[in-house]
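Milestone M4 deliverable, item 7.
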Amino acid sequence: DVIVSEWMGYFLLRESMVSSVLFAREKWLKPSGVMYPSEARLFVAPLSSPSFFARRQADVRNGKEEWDTLSAELRERFSIDFFALRDAMRKEHF
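Output delivered:
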């Protein structure tokens, strides 16, 4: 048996696929089976990049503004109020 999966995402865990792959391994993979990839390494080092940080701050600001614009438009056009999701969205994405 073989399990092939691209489960890594950003920083190995961002897409939350690890649990699915581990579940599949435990449930279906025979003891003599293999997984590809079967291991990963994460190397971390400090970095200072003022221009990257400034771009990221601008992205966050724009994302918040886009959410507020979308929420206002949905409320106005369809009487759907997404305001209650604002804090959760910001916590998850920013």
